[in-house]
Amino acid sequence: MITGLRTVSYPVTDLAKAKAWYQAVLGQAPYFDEVFYVGFEVGGFELGLVPDGTPGAAGPTAYWGSGDIETDIARIVELGATVHAALTEVGGGIRVATLLDPDGNQFGLIDNPHFDPAKVR
To answer: What would the pLDDT profile of 25-60 be if each residue is shown by its tens digit?
Structure first.
């Protein structure tokens, strides 16, 4: 049974540079930091960086929650991301946007007024 987002792994070309970028985006240091994997705990979920594979926007998109999506988009773009899909309302007051990190990976943001983080296990 699928119970919710747990981990999203992003392939990166320069692990140290990607770690620094995501640390700035997330406002926290990783909880797991090795040469083969860097993991950040984000609201009960994990964002992982792996130094192999091919970065790019062709893979699946994971959407990370945001309480102030306009501000987050602007801040993350200022940190070096580019807008891949502009902020859009997709129904029911839910708004999404997709950015590309400096390696070209998709970084989705979602503002979902129906999501209750207290229900995350």
So the answer is: 999 999 999 999 999 999 888 899 988 777 777 766
Q: Are 37 and 30 in contact (CB under 8 A)?
A: no
**Residue indicated by tokens 């987050």:** 72
Please name which of 57, 87, 90 lies closest in space to residue 72, comparing C-alpha atoms.
87
Burial class (CB in 10 A: 0-12, 13-18, 19+), 91: exposed
Entry pTM: 0.74
Structure tokens at 33: 């930091």
Taking phi first (over 0 means left), then psi (-120 to 50 degrees means alpha), and beta for anything else, what does residue 52 get? Answer: beta
> What is the rounded CA–CA span in Å between residue 96 and residue 55?
22
The label of the residue with tokens 């392939």 reads 11
Question: pLDDT tens across 52-109, in order?
Answer: 777 777 766 788 888 899 999 999 999 999 999 999 998 888 898 999 999 999 999 9
